[in-house]
UniProtKB/TrEMBL annotation:
PANTHER family with a match to the protein in the record: SPERMIDINE SYNTHASE, SPERMIDINE/SPERMINE SYNTHASE
Binding site for S-methyl-5'-thioadenosine: Q31, E106, D137, G138, P162
One matching Pfam family: Spermine_synt_N
Pathway field: Amine and polyamine biosynthesis; spermidine biosynthesis; spermidine from putrescine: step 1/1
Subunit annotation: Homodimer or homotetramer.
SUPFAM superfamilies: S-adenosyl-L-methionine-dependent methyltransferases
Protein family according to the UniProt entry: Belongs to the spermidine/spermine synthase family.
Active site positions, chain numbering: D155 (proton acceptor)
Swiss-Prot/TrEMBL catalytic activity: S-adenosyl 3-(methylsulfanyl)propylamine + putrescine = S-methyl-5'-thioadenosine + spermidine + H(+)
EC nos: 2.5.1.16
Protein name: Polyamine aminopropyltransferase
Enzyme type, top EC level: transferase
Natural source organism: Fusibacter ferrireducens
């Protein structure tokens, strides 16, 4: 008998992956957590029935959330990750030897513990001595912090459930205050393609551009997220991801990456016309 994982991408579109087994299913105080094993995508986990991370395309997301800001501001020393319980974002950050401090604030400890057990491919650097884990709501953690971080990476779920507050005006304002003068905020920015996701993309962008002098959006290809077309937001107090791009400096780090490269750094900010229109409307 064939076993299939099916996820609703819109009311009339489903996405399915054949699975070998569904081996973990628990309700945490925050969300429903499920782990599966599949032939095509290896091990993957879902939160409230939505794909978060799988072994096959996680490199796309984690390269793009990390290396774009690191190549814009190569002197980043203090970083805050909000969400990201699978550890993939932290793994990429730990590859930079000059980063001194990585705080990760994840609301759901159960996600982290399950990923350490079943997804070591992403969780394997959470024990790096520069990393401190906080199991709290990122929304609360950031309140009252002033000029503490050079980079904030919001590696969050969609704006439903515990992730909702991480798409609010109050949260983005607190992030602005928590950043240093050359600070950068990267946030999980949803997808421009299906209207149910594009609505959130637009709402998020409209808020961030009111707070940050520089506010851009960049894209990448994520096969297992709805439509495969996904975005991160790049917001900063002073640095522009294209004008201030430090190509040579980043290349001198000598990091091997599977998705990100310095051509893509500029390319990913070139948006299709329908996306530009949606963002400008
Ligand atoms: N690295 C890609 C994985 C994720 S998971 C996002 C994480 O954000 C989850 O572990 C969830 O528990 C955590 N989270 C949600 N809300 C909060 C909050 N308020 N404070 C701290 N952590 C939170 C991202 C997947 C993106 C999926 C896009 N479709």
């Amino acid at each position: 008998m064939e076993l299939w994982y099916t996820e609703k991408h819109t009311n009339t579109v489903n996405f399915s992956i054949q699975v070998k087994r569904h081996f973990y299913s628990e309700s945490s105080p925050f969300q429903q957590i499920d782990f599966f094993e599949s032939k095509e995508f290896g091990t993957f986990f879902t939160l409230d029935g939505l794909m978060m991370v799988n072994e096959k395309d996680e490199f796309v997301y984690h390269d793009m959330i990390t290396h774009v800001p690191m190549a814009t501001h190569p002197d980043i020393k203090r970083v805050l990750v909000i969400g990201g319980g699978d550890g993939g974002t932290v793994r990429e950050l730990t590859r930079y030897k000059h980063i001194e401090k990585i705080d990760m604030v994840e609301i759901d400890e159960m996600v982290v513990r399950a990923c350490q057990k079943y997804l070591p491919i992403t969780a394997n650097q959470l024990t790096d001595p520069r990393v401190t884990l906080y199991f709290e709501d990122g929304l609360k953690f950031i309140q009252g912090k002033v000029a503490e971080y050079d980079l904030i990476l919001v590696d969050s779920t969609d704006p439903i459930g515990p992730g909702e507050g991480l798409f609010s005006m109050a949260f983005y304002t607190d992030c602005f205050k928590a950043l240093t003068e050359t600070g950068i905020l990267i946030n999980q920015h949803e997808s421009p393609y299906y209207p149910n996701y594009a609505r959130e993309m637009k709402r998020s962008h409209d808020k961030i551009k009111k707070i940050f002098p520089i506010s851009k959006v960049y894209q990448f290809h994520m096969p297992t997220y709805p439509s495969g077309h996904w975005l991160f937001g790049f917001a900063s107090k002073s640095l522009d991801p294209i004008k201030d791009f430090k190509k040579e400096k980043w290349e001198a780090f000598g990091l091997e990456t599977k998705y990100y490269n310095t051509d893509l750094h500029t390319g990913c900010f070139a948006l299709p016309t329908f996306v530009k229109k949606l963002l400008e409307e």
